[in-house]
Amino acid sequence: MLRSLPFRLKLFTLAACALVALAAALTMIQDRLVLKVLEAQFESRAAAARPILQAALAAPLAERDFATIQAIITESVNAGSFAHMVLLDAGGQPVAAAGWNVARDGTPQYQGRPLAMPDGDSRMVYETPVSLAGQRLGTVHFGMSLAPIEAAHAALVTGGVVAAILCVALMVPVVELGSRWLFRPLKRLEAAAAAIRGGDYDTPLDPRALRATVAREGGGDEIARLGSTFIAMAGAMRERLEALSASEARQRALLEEARLREALLRTAKEQAEVATRAKSEFLANMSHEVRTPLNGILGMAQILAASELNEADREAVQVILDSGNLLLGIINDILDISRLESGRVKIEVASVDTVPMLSQPLSALAAAALRKGVGWTVELAPDLPRQVMADRMRVAQVLVNLAGNAVKFTESGQIRIRARWLQLPAGGRLRVEVADTGIGIPRESWPQLFERFAQAEMSTTRRYGGSGLGLAISRQLVELMDGRIGFDSQPGQGSTFWFELPLGLPALARMEAAGGRRVLVVEALPSHRTAASALLRQLDHAVTTVGDGKAAEAALRDQAFDVVMLDLDGPEGWETASRLLGMTKGQARVPIIGTAEQPDTALRERCGAAGLAGLLGKPMRLRDLHPAIQTAVAEAAAR
């Protein structure tokens, strides 16, 4: 409630309270002084009355003149000198009394404090002995009324109250006039604050007048300093508002610029996506166009290499195989770089046998090393787990890239490949090292060694060939598998490349292989059918080949097959897959393994969604055919 009162009323209330308190204090002090004086007068009168009473009452009391004694006492009380008097003889018996009812009130006794009488009066009681010639005759008790002191006290209090009321009454106009004079600057401050609240920062206060007041009064009072501070605050607020307005203008300009840049970036992104899609489509089309005849060449070359040939023909076939595989590797490297750039390469982790994963991809490179007269050693640590969770194809790709470089750049000496297992609480790390005694790498070439299209020197490309993409692809694949890759090299002494991969351990046991399956191959190109048939027969499978979906349907109706291998790159690949899957619906379904030139993650997911049992890349290899067929057959039997 007090907070809501006007400041002027608060000031008046404080002043009134101060005046009342002052009047009360002065009244109390005056009252105390007056009472002290009156009390001293009482004591003086009592002291003066003692010898008079002694002299007046001694002789009559000695003569036992009680009439005279009573007359003296009565006259003294009636004259107003005393409020009461009581004379006691030497034995303490009352002799005479006036103003005191001895029968009712007893004998008065001396005490240091006022005595309250039944009629409401207050008295101070004194006593004095009465003696004659040294002989004590009795005691006189006399009382003096405190009515004068109480009357003086009441008059002083009444005067103090009247003075306080008069002071408060006189203070009203004084405070009103003074407050108007004092609050005039505050009202100007209030008006200026209201103007600023309304957005007008050009305060109506006069800075020069305030500065003159401050200078004239030696620093000015608090209100003058408050006004000066208020003007400074208003100026600072105006400057900050102007700075804020300028900042908002700059921000609007920056936002507009950012929107323009965002639009340009969006347009550039869309153009880049269009260019990336066009590049991917071009690479896919070119890959199909180049790899289709190349698959036929390599397939037929594998068949010729397995047949009985004379030495010259065998060397020619080997040249075809080596050149075709080199060309296929370059095409695959370019496609891998394109997929890695677009983020389309996904790591597909599955349970794989550790030793075959590391040894099978190296068989062709071992033969190439032996043909060059270079020693070849593969050391697999005995504590390698039997199976690990890994992407077999990507691990093999990294290993083949490193080992292939070792074979390429080593003319004499040996190549040593070591694999060991670093046990961890959850799984472990597979560390593979490929050491050679080749040409080595100069130290100045180390920083760009894992860059694309980079080799130690330009003469290396001319002498040894290659695209310079293998190490770049290996590094990106290892990083995608959360691993790391590195090397150490000395020019003229050789190099050691290594990579480490964190791998988990599978919960399922290894599935044992079994052969002798009946396989139906559906391929549009005769050369692909011949190559696939030759590879499958090397694995002791019974093979039937057809060229289109209708022939495949007829073959499935006439014969029983354990697995179907279907070319998904053909013009009716997916339609044929749908029809073949529908033929066995409701009975023991024959698993279908798709084949394609670009078996990426998206295609694998589509195969899984369609119900196919697996996907193999072309050209097919023996090391991939066997586990794919056995896994598909085992999963079909388990359903």
Task: Tell me about this structure.
With about 650 residues, the chain is of the alpha/beta class. About 55% of the residues lie in helices and about 15% in strands. It has 17 helices and 17 strands. The strands form four sheets. It has a five-stranded antiparallel β-sheet with strand order 2-1-5-4-3. It has a five-stranded mixed β-sheet with strand order 7-9-10-12-11. Helix 15 links the parallel strand 15 (about 565) and strand 16 (about 590-595). The two termini are about 85 Å apart. Mean pLDDT is about 80; it is low at about 215-220, about 455-460 and about 510-515.
Summarize the structure.
The protein is of the alpha/beta class and 639 residues long. Helices cover 57% and strands 17% of the residues. The protein is built from 17 helices and 17 strands.
Question: Helices and strands in order, then pairings?
Answer:
Blueprint: H1 7-63, H2 66-78, E1 84-89, E2 94-98, H3 102-105, E3 115-116, E4 122-132, E5 135-145, H4 147-197, H5 207-216, H6 222-306, H7 311-342, E6 350-353, H8 354-359, H9 363-372, E7 375-380, E8 387-390, H10 392-408, E9 414-423, E10 428-436, H11 458-464, H12 470-480, E11 484-490, E12 494-503, E13 518-522, H13 526-538, E14 542-546, H14 549-558, E15 563-567, H15 573-583, E16 592-596, H16 601-610, E17 614-617, H17 622-638
